[in-house]
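Supplementary Text 2. Reproducibility record for the structural model of the 108-residue chain.

All settings were left at their defaults, and a single model was retained for analysis rather than an ensemble. We include the record here because the model underlies the residue-level annotations in Supplementary Table 4.
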Amino acid sequence: MSSTSKNTESSAPEGGSNTEVVAWEGLGEAYFRDGWCNTAQRALQRALELVEPKAEPNSPSPLAVSIHWLLGRVFQNLSEFPEALAHFDSALRLWAGVSEVWVFQSSP
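Retained model, structure tokens:
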């Protein structure tokens, strides 16, 4: 390693950027949809590791809600029901604190 190279790990902020979190979440969802549940679990766990340090206690991230929900579905498909339930519970608890409102309107 040259003396001019920089250690990006030590200079990186705690938690990942939203782009990085969304990328890991999307990768996990794609793996899940293709039936690769173990690989999906690893990708979603990485997304959760990146989003949780940035989360404010009184303002949880909608990304964390989505990631927990997807992890619940992954664990459910793996027949790991206690883990699935824990992630579904986390998603619901966080959802109650999310200030963003998503409105879906059906066509007339």
